[in-house]
Specification:
Elements lengths: L27 H4 L2 E4 L2 E4 L12 H8 L4 H7 L4 H7 L2 H9 L6 E3 L16 E6 L6 H8 L3 H7 L13 E5 L10 E7 L4 E6 L7 H27 L3 H10 L4 H17 L4
Parallel strand pairs: 3-6, 4-7
Antiparallel strand pairs: 1-2, 4-5, 6-7
Organism: Solanum lycopersicum (Tomato)
Protein name: LysM domain-containing protein
InterPro entries: F-box-like_dom_sf, LysM, LYSM1-4, LysM_dom_sf
Length: 268
Amino acid sequence: MGCCCDDDEQLLQPLNPSEIQNSDQIPPSASSTTVEHDGEAVISPMNSHFSALICHDTLRAILEKLALPDLARAACVNRIWNFVASDRELQTKAFKDPWKIKDVIGDPSSGSFWRDNSLSKFAISHRIVRGDSVASLAVKYSVHVMGIKRLNNMMSDHGIYSRERLLIPVSNPDCLINGTCYIELDIYAKREVAVLYLDGGPDPKLTTMLNRLTSERSKKRVIDSLRRSMQVDGETAQYYLAVSDGDPRSAFSQFSEDLRWEREAGLT
């Protein structure tokens, strides 16, 4: 069991204290741990400063009962709640429990992934084979043609022939039961999806190719961003990104130092 009472008052501060300009303006009911009910003082569990709710173990026992959207809201109450609600194990449990998923593998690139676990967050991976069409896949998986096109950002049926796989919307949540989902950033869907492989698991070759394409696109976006920030050509931006081991901040700092040296040396 952890210590129930931290002495660090900062942990109890709201995550956005600037919203509270004057504590005198806060009504007593907002800062008290009790409320009046039929003339009697009753402890209010809705007050996040209630001493029992700053104990990590007690708070965790409460938060693990929440649905994922409510868990995301709880993370916005104060720093202690944010620390507990942001625990990966807690988030994963809340994400998979409603659908009875066995496991979720992978780390999302953004914490916002854990804010929602609606059925639209999931998809089935289908590897394209000869004879496949969007219409035939819609029939096979009992989904709408437009649902497949929308998820994969396809403008026409012909887009299927340039791809190794398609993501299929989940129409029957029963297929998720005891399944293992892989968190993937799909280059065509352009978002992170919990992908279910009905035939076992990800194809290593396909995964390698998708990761390479995703990495290339991400690198291109970083170079474009550096090029605009530095006001240089793409090759110069790529050079500074390479010498800084792919760290954009370090690349910009190195460029700024070189530019400062050139000015001091009278080269520019």
